[in-house]
Amino acid sequence: MKRVLAAMSGGVDSSVTAALLLEQGYDVCGVTMKLMDNEQICDEFSKSCCGFDAARDAKMVADKLKIPHYVINALAPFQETVIDNFVKEYSYGRTPNPCIRCNYFLKFDFLMKKAKELGCEYLATGHYAVMDNGYLIRGRDEKKDQSYFLYPVFASETEKILFPLGNMEKSEVRKIAQRYALPTASKQESQDICFIPEGDYASFLKQNAGITNKSGPILDVWGNEIGQHQGIAFYTVGQRKGLGALGKRMYVKEIRVEDNSVVAAVDEDLFSSIIRVDDMLWGKDAPVEGGKYRVQIRYKGSPVEATLSRFQKQCAVLQFNDPVRAVAPGQSAVLYKDDKVVAGGIISQVMDSI
How high is the mean pLDDT of the chain? Predict the structure, then answer.
């Protein structure tokens, strides 16, 4: 019987993942990562996957399924690779995606190593995507598809990773949870970053990261000062809130660390045609220079047609067929062929020309 380690966050998706693996004949053990220190966990964190409720609910599900359950201390790698990076990126005027970092360093690296230590041949998570013979493919449920977050799987052993929910709709998952009478069957899912459950990035940066409001100029696209910002760490490309009254509806176009300035522009000036992407990872079919791809630059964004104009080592230059709005350095660009993920990387620069 093949042994699998099921990552259990205390939610319905990971709970059903464990149940389905049992149905499929695997020897299953569950694991929950402890990501926050006890002193950091207060009421606002308790219901996130960082908090007490997550480990308690995962344990209740494991008991219901009669499988072993482990809580593994992941405080140090989570702090170093996810939270510290989150703070650093915002202080540099970029917009990070901590879920992608967590997948890269925690779920498909740290947990994969733990799986081997526990004698498991496979690692399974409750993500909505499909792994098929080493290929990463969009999940069947279009509203829940998480393939955008999952390209870091290419840095791991793809043949040892299972996504049992990939060909299922969320409604089916709920029904399975109810059939098994799992304690998480009716549990609502969080829409926030786990360590910022209220979604208040600015307060987190102030209270937990020591970033202060170092004000500076808001400039228009011609370099004229038109206002004052409250600190570049509290802004992201495309943001309108926090710019103050500038005489007309304007948005953040660019964040300049070198002179502590924020460039604001009207909506039509937020569009770009060329971006540079670094730290590229790809699967069995490497992207090719000159290739045509559909590129997604944010989780909820629609893929757009683009050409891979340059590709060297782990750096790519992408040229969009039509300009795209509010490209934010620090986010990921993920390349697709139809529903198949080809590659992904971090947007490092918005370029004026190739």
Answer: 92
User: How far apart, in Å, are the Cα atoms of 256 and each of 3, 246, 276?
Assistant: 50, 19, 17
Catalytic residue among 29, 99, 102, 120: 102
- For tokens 């344990």, the residue is 59
Residue that the structure tokens 């697709």 belong to: 336
Q: CA torsion angle for 38, 152, 149, 234 (degrees, to 10)?
A: 60
**Residue 338 is part of which domain span?**
270-351
Task: Check the CA dihedral 222-228-233-236 and report its sign.
Answer: negative
The catalytically annotated residue of 29, 49, 99, 194 is: 194
Let me know if residue 251 belongs to a domain: yes
**Does 284 share its domain with 162?**
no
Q: Does position 354 have pLDDT exceeding 90, yes or no?
A: no
197-202 contacts: CB < 8 A, separation 24 or more?
197/44, 197/45, 197/47, 197/48, 198/44, 201/90, 201/234, 202/234
Q: Is 221 found in the same domain as 173?
A: no
Residue 102 appears among annotated catalytic residues: yes
Domain count, the chain: 3
Is residue 226 in a domain? Answer: yes
Residues 103 and 235 in one domain: no
Amino acid, res. 83: I
- 266-322 pLDDT, tens digit per residue, is 999 999 999 999 999 999 999 999 999 999 999 989 999 999 999 999 999 999 999
Question: Active site includes 315?
Answer: no
